[in-house]
Amino acid sequence: MASKTPVGFIGLGNMGSPMAKNLLRHGYPVIATDVFPESCKELQDEGAQILDSPAEVADKADRIITMLPSSPNVIEVYTGPNGILKKVKKGTLLIDSSTIDPSVSKEMALAAEKMGAVFMDAPVSGGVGAASLAKLTFMVGGVEEEYTAAQELLTCMGANVVYCGQVGTGQAAKICNNMLLAIGMIGTAETMNLGIRLGLDPKLLAQILNMSSGRCWSSDSYNPVPGVMEGVPSGNNYQGGFGTTLMAKDLGLAQHTATNTKTPVPLGSLAHQIYRVMCARGYANKDFSSVFQFLREQEEEPEKKGD
Q: According to the UniProt record, what class of enzyme is this (predicted)?
């Protein structure tokens, strides 16, 4: 145990905190920081050393994982006045598990390279539950020679670690997956709602879809209709899971990268706008499968007036 060298961890939010705990469980000393000191308390109680800034973490650890909400946070943590690159040691491995624009990952990799450090993007799929159970999927982009070193740490926090190619390809894989996930969820919600309106029992309709060509992950593993499945957010008033705000953010990234690469994504764009409207209509903190409830509400408004 004592032979394992410390790992820096920056960003102890809903995802970062359980990920850092899994490193501790695997016997890695963790040196951590977060802009919100209260986020650090729990990890400190489990044995992590807490420092004041990313620069201080970089001074003490030569392997650092960052898990931050968005591109501006990543830029600040790496290149800001108290950022990692102010104190980073030559040869340090920097792994960013935030979901951000691939172009920002590439910028950070260049900035790190100038300081003699190695940057890899390793965004995750799986959400808070998978983070706690160390069952995340990591999609990794970066120099292939460094992949094994990254893999050693990532396997402590996830069930699948996939090498995607150069820096930014991890982000690309994540963004593409989530665009399809959103489109599939909206399609499933529309379909279920139409079937229910036509008099079909939702459980029966789901069963038919799942043995037919319309089957998808949203219909068979994460059904958006309350009461159709156990243990999913739709059965718990859309609490937990993957928030609508986060889905809107990821679809914004998909939109931005599509514009930059002149790629037509008509359904991706529409999905982005639907989730944006949902954020403005009080669904921001609900799971993204609440699009079913949103569609029902759209239809039911006139009826309520007549009741």
A: oxidoreductase
